[in-house]
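Suppose a classmate hands you a notebook page containing two proteins, each written out with its sequence and a corresponding row of structure tokens. How would you begin to make sense of it? This section walks through that situation. The first entry is reproduced here exactly as it would appear on such a page.
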Amino acid sequence: MSATSVERGRDVRRRLLRAAVELIPELGWNAVSTRSVAERAGVTPGLVHYHFSSLQALLREAVVDAMSTELSSVLPALEQAEDLAAGLDMLVSRLDAYDGMDAASLLFVEAYLAATRDEELRERLAAQLGGLRRELAAWLAEHGHGAPAATASILAAAVDGVLLHRALIPDSGAEELAPVLRRLVTSLDEQSG
């Protein structure tokens, strides 16, 4: 295979993944079709199955890659914080970018729902969530928190919960949530000691 055909293949694959990430929030996981992905990517439907074993394999890879990108930005941002309170404030302030109906929020919701019926997707998303929890736990431990693993689990669940609820009740911003989250994390730390 020539370098040009390899590059074209990579480009088609990237376009298919990007099209899937765009279509999942727009249409819903189950409404995305081979044809809709191919049309959005500007390729023939046969290329979807040339690059991926199935439409579900394409959707899985697209969502796992997109979620990995979103989650990978959390720890570097936390590491910029000078202390635990500043890190928690930063984490909560980042939530203001998501209103619950934005593409990233809808992608996460659709992926979580699809994972209830797709064991491979569930395992891959669980691995990502586990990685986030470990990173949060390490960051909490570095800042002297006494129960980093349990707190990281609660913190990740709280962030997910806020994002999920915002689609229905978009009334809580960073200014309201940050003090509550700080008290929760501090309380969990005090109870562990």
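The notebook's second entry, a different protein, reads as follows.
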Amino acid sequence: MEAILYVSHGSRFAAACYEAARFVEQCKAAIDIPIQELCFVELAEPDIVTGVDRCVAQGATRIIVVPLLLLSAGHAKHDIPAALELAKQRHPSLEIVCGTPFGVHESMIDIIIDRIGEHPTPLDNESMILLIGRGSSDPDTKRDITAIARLLKEKTNVPHVDICFLAAIHPTLDEGLEQANASIYRHVFVVPYLLFTGVLMKTIERKLEALPVSHQQWHLCSYLGYHPRLVTLIQEQVLSLSLAKKEADSKGR
């Protein structure tokens, strides 16, 4: 029997875990697979191995692991595979296939545009966007955020899109805010490229509140959140992995 195990980052903020759980309920309603469970990489329960155990206890013989992560960095490349290897040792006959984070995808650009569009002030030729990533020591993080910023600029035709990071990479949040503050743009749309609320979102809010008065108008947009477009991306990924399994089975006969 097939199962889906959704792997969220995890947070000490109960609201963040609740957001993930509510999103998984939306996915369950949209995907016709009998067993679907949620687990977390860190900071919340159940952990990944426990999530696998719960799927197996319900009769799962094959698990599609769906990382609820924005980009492919340390969690996707190391932490999730390591936990799945431990789970595999507990359940040697279990088949586990792992999907990928959302990554650089046109739907992610559309989500950013949707979040900016929720603000009453429209983008114009006096506007810039400051895209704030979580940050990681993995070099792919900066590459991917840079690619997203480029696609965002092309799709919105806004004069300038800049990037900064909350940890591990330059430019830092302070550097990004300083550069935007020194820019010629009247409107600065700040977009937290984050999937859920929590400490990092509070940090951005606090930094913006501390900015000196200037000629600019700062517009803090909502973090990405578990947008309905993500349900479609997950549907596509699960379908692709399921079809790959069926094709492999047919060739093996």
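A careful reader of the second entry would note: The chain has eight helices and eight strands.
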